[in-house]
């Protein structure tokens, strides 16, 4: 009798094990390189998608080391969403390890979100790595501009519909809902930022040109003397003089960069360190894409109002 009870338990577990992948197989397996793209895919895909991402928003997305479990995710993916350009240099080795031709460059399940974006900071011909860790195809941090957010959301909806046409109406409806919410927020954000148009800020790394354009702010100087080069005493002294001379009120950086240099410069100039988010989940307030943008606007307005 004991043998039969054990056999029944094993049989039950096998049946459960068989039903789960069968149910999950009806969902598209979407893997995004970053949490922001995953959040947009989840918002638009709803119950029809099973979404995961590779890069933790707590770390610099330039320098991610994918885990073996990430290789498995990509190997099983129906769709891979990425930033394109040369932001995720770790993506190529990850794709090679996964060996899933469907999501490789040019494959049916590959979505490069940069293709619909008007890029900023595209280097002149002849640019080399001697100028620092520059992005040879243009600045890749385009998703922090909410206007670009609408473009990449459209790209995601169209790709989901192309792969899964049976749910195209659902994807389009959720896209329209998201765009409507973004349009309402954009109007409010621009009204709040208008009083500060033309003001200058200093950045840690050159990752905010799209947000600065949206906000009507300027950012021409950085703590990094060259892209990817940590701040030096000489650069900090140069910035101190620049900020005092031009009454620069704030120093912007992501949460994952070291904070000591910005804090020291702020103390010497009376400026405020403004922590902004590059990705959903980087701080607790950035719980989804619109919340992340709201957080960034709040941080900018609060810092500029206090002076």
Structural notes for this entry:
- With 307 residues, the chain is an alpha/beta fold.
- 46% of the residues lie in helices and 13% in strands.
- The chain has helices at residues 2-24, 35-45, 68-75, 91-98, 146-163, 168-193, 209-215, 233-246, 260-269, 289-305; strands spanning 28-34, 49-55, 79-82, 110-112, 200-203, 218-222, 250-254, 272-276.
- The longest helix is centred in the middle third of the chain and has 26 residues, at 168-193.
- The radius of gyration is 22 Å and the shape is globular.
- The relative contact order is 0.11.
Q: Largest sheet, order of strands side by side?
A: 2-1-3-4
Strand content: 5-15%
Shape: globular
Tell me the number of helical segments per DSSP (H or I, 4 or more residues long).
10
Characteristics of this structure?
disordered N terminus; 307 residues; alpha/beta
